Please model this.
Amino acid sequence: MLIVITLFLALLLRAGAATPSPQYAPTTFDRSVPKSLFFSLEELSRLVAISYCVGNTGIQEPFECLNHCSDFKGFALVTTWDTGILDSSSSGYIVLSHPPWPQRILVVFRGTHSFSDAIQDLMTSPAEYLPYPVNEGDCSNCTVHSGFMASWNATKEMILPTLERLKIEYPAYKLVLAGHSLGGAVAGLAALEFKAREWEVEVTTFGEPRLGNEAMARYMDGVFPWNGSAGDSTYRRVTRIHDPVPLLPFEDWGWRMHGGEIFISSNNVPITTEDIERCEGDEDERCIQGVASSSTKSLRQSQSPLRDQQNSPDWGLKIPPSWELWQLLFAHREYFWRLGLCFDPQWRDYPRDGDD
Model:
């Protein structure tokens, strides 16, 4: 497994190692993240952290768990789901946010429990492409990761009847999706299907991998336009410096990012509004796409414990000197809070320095 992850790091950086720092032309795009959006993302990250209790210690009614549930007094758990440990596995929960909270039907998708398994699944081979089932002419050349599609197909059978009922019972409630890692990819596919049903939906993902090919990315951008104001965006794809998952599967294999990126440039937790920015277009070099071309050195020069310095060959490839396995793990998990485990967080007071 360590050799696989080491090769992943090398391949990820090989194309960008010799790329000079780009010069950016002036733009009218507003990169700032208003505090209202910042705290909305922070809240949703806590709700995503709770999803890791599903299949672990559980979530109980009315809305109780060993993670952040106590932060959301008045929320009402509707259901949880867990398709089991399969290639198409998916877990999560549906909860209602009643007044005085904003009125919402929240669907939260859990990511994988195993970081190393996620890396291996996404990078060991170019997974089979499957056409995305939209109306003919809408996206005839769109292809998506077969594993993501299988997870969504397994999930929708379990949650669609519940959501149809809730949409009737709570017509004024906003439908909000959130997910981390592979759960973010499933949330993205769910959002497309809900939009096809003419349901208004808001989506926030953390550490979402590339969903599909370039045609799929363009289709996503058409359904969820991004380059307007922060308040008009209904799909927010949050990434973090040194998190490798948003850069997987490999671009060389035809995978592309879609828009909506909000980039966290700090290695620290908690973060502030100074550490986060909106990104322009699909693959903004000032955001996660540009991380792969920064600060590299050869595998033989690296002192990384991920490789056997005595016995490994010199692959002639590049990796960033700071990227060790434990740092990748935390980079993928620390989005406002530490995601990926169901436990009481190490920090409870998030800095709030006033309103907009």
User: Anything to note?
Assistant: The longest strand covers residues 76-82. The helical segments are 2-14, 35-51, 115-123, 146-169, 182-196, 214-223, 288-291, 325-333. The chain has a mean pLDDT of 78.
